[in-house]
Each structure stands twice: as C-alpha cells, then as structure tokens.
Amino acid sequence: MIEQHEIPADEALIVTDEDGEVVGDTGTEVVVDGRKISVGNTFFRGESTIFYPTRDELRKPEGIGRYFLSGWVPAVSSARPGEQVLVLGCDIVSDLLRAAQAHGLTSTGLPGALDGGIAHVHGLRRVLAAALDQAADPVLGLDDQDLAALRAVVGCAETIVLCPGQSQYHVSQQPVQHLHLAPYLAGGAGPGVVDCLTATHAETVADLAACYRLLRQARPQAQIVLAVSPLPLAQNLSSFGPLVASIASKSTVRSAVDDFYRQARPGDDRLHYFPAFELVQTGLNYPFLADRRSLAPHALALLGTAFARAFALGVDDDALAAAHVEARQADFAAGEALRANPPVPLATAPHPLAWPDEAAMAADTTLEHAVLKGLMPAAPFVNADRTLIAFGSCFANNISRYLNTIGYNVATRRDAIAYVSRMGDGIVNTFAIRQQFEWAWEGKVPQVELWHDYKATEFGYDEGIRLRTRELFDMGDVFIITLGLSEVWYDEPTGEVFWRAVPADKYDPGRHKFRMISQAESLENLHAIYRLIRAHRPAAKIVFTVSPIPLMATFRGAATIVASAVSKAILRSAVDEFFQAHQAADPELYYFPAYEVVTGCFHEPFTPDLRHPFLHTILLNMKMFERYFCDSGLGDAQIAEFLAEVRYRDLALNGADRPLVMARIKEEADEWRGDGKVPCIESVARLKARDDVIAARAKERDEATALRQQELTAKRDEALAAREAAAEERRKAAEQRRLEAEAARAARARPAR
Fold it and tell me: What residues contact residue 342 under an 8 Å CB cut-off, 6+ apart?
C-alpha cells in the first residue's frame, strides 16, 4: 500500500509548467511516494503529499492498491465468514455481489426492481424510506412484500453498499417516483405524464444523508460503503450530447458523494468509499466492450477482486496485484484486437438518445453529435477585431497560444505586466480567478500575500499592475476562463485562498491550512465572476472550460487518482449548475467541452506521465474551437481528417507502431515548444506508408546495385581470366622460342663428323 511521506519545508517540490518542464531551481533529490523528486526551496507541499502516478508506476502490480484504494477503503478487511452484504444501486450491483459471494460473504436475493434498478440517489432514498420508515410515501413498482424483503436484508447486513449512477430521475404526474428509465422510454409517456428531472448537487447530498441516517438507525455497526457506477448513462434525455450529459451527471453524483463523505467520515470510521468509478475510468485503457458501456470481462474481474480485497475475505495485496497484472495483459490484448479490427464507422448519425458505441465514435460526425451538441455558437464570432482575454488553467494557455499564433488578438498573450498574462495558466482554482476580477474592477485587495508565480516570486498588489489588469479586462470582447482544481491552501485567520501551495519560506503551520473547495463555493465563485463580467462588459462573450489535466499531487492523505477525480467532479458539477441557471437567458455564455473530449473520446489521450494530453489531442480541441468560434474558415472536412489521424494514433499507441507514433509525437512537441508555430500533425499512417515505399525503393536500389556489382565483377573476372590466358599463351610461346633457340645453338655447336 502507499506510504505517506512528510516533506520538510526546506525540501519542497519544484513546480512544473503545463508541458511538464521544471520551472523552478532544481536541488537535491528526495524519495517521495516511491519516486525521486528534484527539490529546492520553492514550495511547501504539505504533510502527506501523494503524487499522481506515471503510466509505468500505475502499471506496476501494486498500482491498484497504491493509487486507487489506499486511504479510501480499510487497510485490512474486517469481514467474517458468512457475513451478509447488501448492494443497492445500478449497473454493477450484481458484479459486486458476485465478488463478495466468491470470497466468503453471503447475500440474500432481492426483488428484480431492486437488483440493479435504482440508478439515482433520490430513488435509493425513497426505497429505503419506504422499507425502513413506515410514514414514507409508496414507491411505484414495489409492493409490501418487496419492501419487507429489503427490510429483512438490511436488518442482518454487515456491509451495505450504495452505488448510484446518475443524477437524473423520473416522476409521474403524481408524487410517485420511478426507479429507472424504462417507464419513460418504453411506456410512450411524455413530459407532463412522466417527467425527467435532474437532481442538483445539494439535493443529491441531502438524499445521501437521508439514506445514511436510515441505514445507521437500522444497522448502527454495519459498514456503509459509497460507490459510483462507472457505466455511462444508458439513455440521454438532455438537450446536450450523450458524452457531455453523462459526464455532467456522473460529476454531480461523484461530487455529492465526496461532499457527504467529508462531512460524515470524521465521526464514522465504518463509512468508506469504494472507487469503482475511478478504477474503470482511469485504471484501464480498454475497460468496455464494443458498445462502450458494458464492462469487459477483465475490467469486471479486476473490479470484483478490488472490492473483495477491501470488504470480503481471502484476497490480500498479492492477490490483488496478480489480478492487476492479469487485467493489464487482457487490456492490452483488447487494444490489440481493436487496432487489428477497427470499427466500421456508422454511415448515418447515431440515435440522439443512445450512448455512442465504437462504430459511432469512429464516424466523422461523432464529436458533433456526442460532445458538441447544444454547446456551440450558431456562428463564429472571433475575428481579428475582437480582443480575447484567456487565463486560468492549461486550456486557457493552450487556446491563447494557438489563437495568437494563427493571427487573432489575444491580449493576455501580448501583455507582460498583468498577472493574468504572466501566470495565465497558473490561476487554477475558482477563488483565485475570482480574486483577479474583484481586484481589477472593484479594487478589492486581499489581507495577506496570496499570489506567487512558479518560482515562488511574490506577486504583490501593485496599483499599476491592477490598473493594467483592469485595462485588459475593459478591452475584453471574449473571456475564456479555464477551471483547474478544487484542492487549495488557505490562510486560516482570514479564510483567503492562495493561488497554489504556500511558498516554503512563508509556510506557517499555525495559519496555513489545506482544504477542498466545496461544490457550493465553486458555484458561488462562478456566479460572482459572471456578475462582474456582465456588470463591466455586458456584451462580452464568456467561454468556460474545465482542464482535463489531473492533480500533480494530493494533500488528502489518500490515493491520488481518486482525489483528482473528485477535484474535477466538483468543478464540472458546479459548471453544469451554473449553466442551467444562466444559459437560457444569456446566449453569449458558452461551455467548451475540452474536458469531455480528452477524457471521454479516446483510449490513451495522455502522455506517459498520465497528466498531460498528447499534443495531437490538445490541437484537436484547438481546431474544434477554431472551427466553431473563429472566422478562419476551417471546415468540417479538415476537422474530420484531423480527427481520423488522432483516432489512428489512439489505437496505434497500443500496437507495434507505437515507437513510430511516439517518435512523431516527440518531433511535434519539440516543434511546438521551439518556434511557437502550430506544428503540422502529419498522418503517421501516411508516414508509415511513405516509409514503406522508401524502404521498398531502397531495397530495389540495393538489389539493382548488387546485380550491377555482380555483373561488373563477372566482367572483371572474365577480363582478368582473358588477360591471364593471353599471358599464359605469351609465356608458352616465349618458352617455345627459347627452346627452339637453344636447340639451334646446340646444333651449331656440334662438330662435324
């Protein structure tokens, strides 16, 4: 399991920029979380810093325990043979039950409507209330016998798992709640008969709290385990693309689960979180079958073994490590199979309600239907006369650099004074972004020093810089703001939030504390930012995005991948509720789904550090932004061609062509970092074909050269043989003449008789 290391203030980590390059002074090396880290005196990194793994680290046998389970589940299972386990929720309920039953626990069967049929927390609350609280309202589809069966199982369960999967739920005209989507889709009912509602984050937290109270009253000593189903929405009933709708829904549930967990866990050491969602979404590259919704056998096996390791019997760390190795091998084989037999793209647009399978994702129009639907402007509005202000996290820096390179007026790219220009990709939490607008437009100055650059250089509250920032904001026609993370350090006496971790030479453990920004705080910060822009630039276009780059490290003292998923879910959930509140009344407000494109459309979008997307994935986002927001004339055909190349690379990275793809990726990244121009993302397939032609041509050339050499050698040997034969004839003739001459001399020398 993971070891937590305390990092002394004089051995704090150097910060890296968006490309992973070290931007601080390097110093000695310390071993933190099993890896060597260059350190200096730049930033204090907390009491228990746990780093996001690289691909090689994650693929180690102990990767599941170290980067997913640690700190979230019991270090040692407390289960006893024959104990009863109850799993309520959707999708993976039966899979978790099978894993528990295979490892020493028991489970009593539930009515069919309860066996994986409760997709949302509101449904769980109503079902548990109906079974455990006699005063509760009835639930459609469950009779007294069903509720009695559930009540009996709850009464003897030692481990109770709640595993919701979505924030949408359905109600009829009467206050009777449906358990799942089937009544709406199959019954032919429409709005006003059976309506689809979406629970907010706060409503979901309240429902979780109610479920928890009911279960604790019935089973005070039972383990209660929270989980989130990793399976996407079966049907999309929103006005947005299915991929965006699913990620928004999952983010609401995931952020609510963590919010409630942080409230209840300090007083209840029998409350746990099982990271089913994170394990499937991040632990494997090919966890789904061709429908991209049903879990593949190797993903199910790994999920079950991880659950058994935490809550059942007979599975230790070695067994989990062995299961991880086996799952990795199967995952690679699944990728090889998909690469060898890529899906045939759909010839027609997919069903608007359906989750896109591999064939749908291979179509040229998949991004338009699955991701961009309902989010893009009716016509491009960025032209050379518009002034763009872009800052926040990585996407703002990427888009500002890209748009500046292709000739648009990105003011924050051309300015070197304002902090939003100098640290445009380092103001990553919603408090820090809000601070810049309040400082520039309202003159609100923090009470303590909060702002520092990558090298811990203090950014004060200079009036000249404030006025320059206000000048930039006053010129802004388009604001592009990217949200990055929800983990922050703050000054306890004032409550004010730092941009990043506290500089080492400023760190005071008595006043500098770590915490999560809640979803409610993030939402309020977004409202405040919006109000400020609208008050000072009422006609400006506003584009929000969420960065796909995970945390570099977490300070929560638990597995990093899970902490990072929570950090993003909080932001994505807040953005979703923010847009529900404003978008209908404000046509100049947009959300660009960079996060969804990177995390939802590809099997291997990240470089080997598992944090930074490949450049071709970044540039796909840039080109989509250019296509829909800019007047450059970039067309669908060019997007389709670029998308095809990105898909080719995504599959080729899992096969024999990986070295060729990685070599080309490195060349492009060097070009992007070097001269600042947008690199030509040349088709690796064409490069490979060209290389094959070159190799064949070289082979023909070498064969022709060898043949010519053989012919020359034969001619040379023939000429040499002829010369040697002629020389031999001459030698023989000379010898004959010599003999004849000697004979003549001898004849002349004999006396006459």
Answer: 362, 651
Quote the CA–CA distance of 325 and 276 in Å, as a whole number: 18
Please give the average per-residue pLDDT across 269-278, as a whole number: 97
Residue range 667-716, pLDDT digits in tens: 888 888 776 677 777 666 555 565 565 566 667 767 777 887 888 888 88
Q: Name the residue among 88, 77, 80, 132 with its Cα closest to residue 106.
A: 80
Check: CB of residue 207 under 8 Å from CB of residue 198. no
Q: What angle is formed at CA 123 by the lines to CA 546 and CA 265, rounded to 5 degrees?
A: 65
Q: Are 115 and 94 in contact (CB under 8 A)?
A: yes
Q: CA–CA separation, 646 vs 635, rounded Å?
A: 17
For the record, the structure tokens of 713 come out as 């050698």
> Which comes out higher in pLDDT, residue 474 or 33?
474
CB-count exposure of residue 753 (10 Å: 0-12, 13-18, 19+): exposed
Any idea which residue has 């004010």 for tokens?
Answer: 496
- Tell me the β-bridge partners of 481: 391, 544
Q: For residues 406 and 632, is the Cβ–Cβ distance under 8 A? A: yes
- pLDDT tens column, 477-497: 999 999 999 999 999 999 999
Q: pLDDT by residue (tens digit) across 185-233?
A: 344 445 555 667 889 999 999 999 999 999 999 999 999 999 999 999 8
424, 617, 333, 316 alpha-carbon torsion, rounded to 10°? 10
Counting DSSP H helices and E strands in the chain, the numbers are: 25, 21
Q: How large is the angle between the packed helices 394-405 and 615-629, nearest 10 degrees?
A: 70
Q: What is the CATH number of domain 77-172+181-277?
A: 3.40.50
Least confident of 168-182, 301-315, 568-582, 666-680: 168-182
H or E stretch including 282?
helix 276-283
Q: Is the pLDDT of residue 627 over 80?
A: yes
Bridge partners of residue 32, in order along the sequence: 35
Are the C-beta atoms of residues 476 and 536 closer than 8 Å to each other?
Answer: no
Which secondary-structure segment (H or E) carries 419?
Answer: helix 419-422
Beta bridge partners of 87: 161
